[in-house]
Amino acid sequence: MMLLRSLASLCILAAVAFAVPAQEKRIHHHADLSDHAHDDAHGFQYDHEAFLGKEEAKTFDQLTPEESKDRLAKIVDRIDTNKDGYVSHTELHYWIKHRQRRYIEENVNKHWNDYDKNQDGKIAWEEYKNTTYGFYLDEEFDDIEDKATYKAMLTRDERRFKNADRDRDGIATREEFTAFLHPEEFDYMRDVVVQETVEDIDKNGDGKINMDEYIGDMYSPESGEREPDWVQTERKHFSDFRDANKDGYLDGDEVAHWILPGEVDHADNEAKHLIHETDTDKDEKITKKEILANWNMFVGSQATNYGEDLTKRHDEL
């Protein structure tokens, strides 16, 4: 049953939330492009993982240099979406962001057929609703103990679906369905993420978050327990930083600054870096020839992997 699967997912997410510091669980950080340091003097592992994605970069490390270059040439053709023979900053930036979001797309693809019942390549709200809540809708939630919670989940899902559905036709494309499942990854879903966060924390229903609600989302004291230092620090953060207008509450804008911090766009920086390093004629765009002349910056191979291993051993000596 889809609803039970959804509930299981919520339990898993809850467990993950408590595996990180409680005060961090609401904040949506951008994932790093690579686990490696960005130091071209000691190899291009960072660039490889940024350009290909972490798993695909491992695949290239098993290829011969010739195979790597052949595959890279085909990738360049895909990046050049307007087919003008150049890779622009915009095209490279989009490609890198796409590769980094691949794990999300794979998750969506894995469950796509569960919802796309008529196999038309789209998911209508009715398909999602009936698959997830169908049985309970028929029974009007009568056999469920916490009826109000399930009805609230349905209402929330419908609102989020409508926001993800940009053309308002009641049917989600794969991109729109991805925005529905992962709204924090899409700028146009920002208001939904903020609204849902406020609703989760706002216990008295006034549409704002006060100090007690803010702390209560992170910490539930045991009887007689002394309040930990980190909780006192969070109280200070609420007063000094989160509550920008000093009215004692967090409104939507203040919540947005808290949970959706403006961060460095690592994909943008990497696109600029790769173009700067390979753009020999300095026209601020790169050709396939320029890319292939510097192929080992973009992708690895058995040879470059071996060379990087030697460098690593030399550094360790």
Automatic annotation (TrEMBL):
Domain of life: Eukaryota
A single GO cellular-component term on record: endoplasmic reticulum
CDD domains assigned: EFh_CREC_Calumenin_like
Location in or out of the cell: Endoplasmic reticulum
UniProt keyword annotations, A-Z: Calcium, Endoplasmic reticulum, Metal-binding, Repeat, Signal
UniProt keyword Endoplasmic reticulum, yes or no: yes
Signal peptide (residue range): 1-19
Example of a GO MF term: calcium ion binding
Presence of the UniProt keyword Repeat in the record: yes
Pfam families: EF-hand_7 (PF13499)
EF-hand domain boundaries: 67-102, 103-138, 152-187, 189-224
PANTHER family documented for this protein: RETICULOCALBIN, RETICULOCALBIN 3, EF-HAND CALCIUM BINDING DOMAIN
Family in the record: Belongs to the CREC family.
Protein name: Reticulocalbin 3, EF-hand calcium binding domain
High-level lineage: Eukaryota, Metazoa, Chordata, Craniata, Vertebrata
